[in-house]
Structures are given as structure tokens and as C-alpha cells.
Amino acid sequence: MKNILTIILISCFFYAFAEENISSMVNAVENTLKADASESEYKINKKTGVITGVNNKACVELIIPETIDGVRVKEIGYRAFAECNNLEKVVISSNITDIGTGAFTNCISLKYVEIPSSVKKIASYAFYGCISLESIDLPKGLEYVGDYAFCKCTALVDIDFPDSVSWIGFSALEGCSSLKNVKLSNLLKAFGNVFKDCISLEEIEIPFSVTTIGISAFEGCSSLKKINIPFSVTSIGKNAFKGCVSLVDFKIPDTVKYVAEDAYQAPLEEQEQKSDDTSTK
Hints:
The chain has 281 residues and is an alpha/beta fold.
């Protein structure tokens, strides 16, 4: 009987010991993932002050410091944090001026980004494929948004371009299928293909600074119902409104001198009416 009790007690002891250690190991792993990257985790070009990457690709949060190893951080470099699949939150220090090409490409868990007013440029593909990003506050002072910068951010609902932005690149918001609310900058003069396949966008106001609505600007925006084209616009490019089958509140002002032949697709009701008229002839 004593032997049986001894075996039971030893078994309970080892079970409790194993359970405690497994729990400790799990907590340690979770804490490692949740921890912010320390200065030593970042890779930086000490001559240029450009961050080139991070050692812990599994990090959940990044608080990018002003200095690393005594070097002042100036820029987030090419694909520095691309495909950090667990990354959810990024806070960028106030001295960084550029977010480089592909810096956060395909960070599929990224939900929150804090961008300081020091940032002047968001380069091409910077946030391409960040499918969990629902909104982003672009800072006053931002001047340039590159090609495909937010392309395929399929959860993005709102974006407000401050009046300091003078350029929005090709396909910058293409495929943002949840996008509903957009405010464009009053410095913007021309754009093309920016909103292609933004299928949830229902209305948008073009600022009076714009003179050219370029090729495929709103192509495939199948829910777009209302757009205000100001008298400043003089040119509308090919396929600018192709596939905008819901567009009913649409008037081209007399100031427009050039409208490409395939710029506009009539709403479904008009297409059906024309089809009926043709069939009765």
C-alpha cells in the first residue's frame, strides 16, 4: 500500500512540475513575441541612419526609436519590416522623414500605425497588402504618397490626405475593397488609377486644385454613385470611370476640354434602356 501511495505522490509531483514549466515556457514565448524590439534588435546603416530590418521578425509591436546605437534614425529603408506577419502596431519616432519602398509590405496583421508630422514621403509599396489595416492617420506635412503605397489594403475604410500632399501615385489605393470615406488634398493637381477597384466607394469630392482625372482613376468602382467634378478639371483620361455602373449623379463641366472615348460607362439602367431601344428597332 505504501509503495502505491509513494508512486502516486511522485507522479503528482512530476505532473505539477511539468505543468508549471510548460506554462512558464509558453508565457516566455508569448512575452518574447509581444515585447517591443529593443535598440539591439534593429538593423541600421550607421552612415545613412536608415533602418534596414529587425532581427525578431515575430515581434508584435515596434516602437521605432529616435536613435539606435547613438545613430540618429532618418528613414525606414527598403522592405525593412516586410512580411513581419505577427506585427500589429507600429509607432514611428518624430525625426523620421521617409517610409521607404515596401517598408511594411504584406504585414498581414498590422492594424495600427502612428506616423509623425516629420514624415514627408511614403514610398511605393510601403503598406502594400496590409490586409488588417482599417484606418490610418496621415500627418500634416506629408507631401508624397508613392505608387501602390496602400494597394490591396482590403480592410481600409477611411483615409484622409492632408492638404500638404501634392502627389498620390499610380494605384496607391487600388483594390482597397472596403474603402468608403476619402478626403483628397487641396494641393493635388492630377491622379490616375488611384481608386481602381475600390468597390465600396460610393461618393467622392474632387478638390478645385485638380486639373486632370487620369487613366483608370475610378475604374471598377462599381458602387460609386456620386462624384463632384469641379470646373478646374480640363481633362478626363481613358477608362477613368469604366465599370462605374452605379454612377447616376455625374456631370462633366463645360471647362473639360478633353474626354477620352472610353472614359465613362453608363449606369446599368441606361445600358438596359439602350438595349431595349435597340431591340425594338
